[in-house]
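W.,

You were right to be curious about this one. When I first looked at the sequence I had no strong expectations either way, so I just let the prediction run and decided to look at it fresh. Below is the sequence, 357 residues in total, followed by the output.
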Amino acid sequence: MQQSFIFRTIDEQRAVFGTQDIWAKKLEEELNVTLSLRGDAVEIGGDESNKAMARDVIKAMVQLYHQGETIREDMIERLIEESREGSLEGLFKAMDSAVTMNYKGLPIKCKTFGQQNYVEMLREKAVTICIGPAGTGKTYLAVAQAAQELKDGVIERIIMSRPAIEAGEERLGFLPGDLAQKVDPYLRPLYDALRDVFGQERADKLRESGVVEVAPLAYMRGRTLNHARIIIDEGQNASLSTLKMALTRLGEDSRMVLTGDVTQIDLPKTSDSGLTRCAEILRGVQGIGVIHLTNRDVVRNKIVKDIVKAFEKEEARQAEQKRSNPAPRRPYTPDKRKGGPIYLKNEGGINDDTHHI
């Protein structure tokens, strides 16, 4: 039995099928169905469960079109994924309202259910700790929420900070310029988020007036931050004691968000990172929220989600391999040069005496 969907307008049909039927072909390929246009109706053929998912995705595409959304490949992929998980309703709830409007007057919206839970936590909690992979909008949504709080007069300023740590094996050595110029490259991702939300000119003016401050995390020590939204980015590159220092900067009517990706630690030793431990210690404390985003919340280029999934799969394989084949313990070998023990046999051949040299 075929299922069908009735289009109310030709524009709905064009939005769903796309230029040269590109979106219709994608739906057919991803869901293993056939789509046939008959007048104002699209007939769906294939397996019953796949037909039902295709109809739900088409209905969702039409609904998003009427909400003013531009139908794109990444959006269709997200709709298909949520349909398979039976959580399309949650996705629409997430995209129902804007976090804020950017400098072009366009709404900044959540794109996944996890992102919506994150924004709700930002609105409700004094401290939010968000851990998740690259591309999940951890920093961008925090800046967008801070921008709305600034517009509403809830806060008087935005303070953004991150550890000044070089990425991976890169060692840049001594950088030219004054102190501000030396640390500026480390803070560039925060500037990018500000520019996307406020626009370059407005962002520059806010920084010049001190309404928006961007500084290395080390500069937080000794301060009390009142009437502010504090955003601590790249928290995985800070020790537990440094994160404690940052969290205790909270002053009157201030809120803080601490973000990080524990799979991208740039410290000399991974064990030096305090983000995971910090989340464990503070989980359950009143006024503090902890949220973990996953690869399902990645909203960058589709390839980013695939990269994250591939690395997660490989890390899980390596962890399982370590559990199955633990490293053998090396047998103890005395070393006279290091004062190791020498066992002296008695006449009966029994090791009954031990001397150190």
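Here's what jumped out at me. The first strand starts at residue 3 and ends at 6. And, maybe more interesting for your project: Residues 302-324 form the longest helix (23 residues).

Coffee later to discuss?

I.
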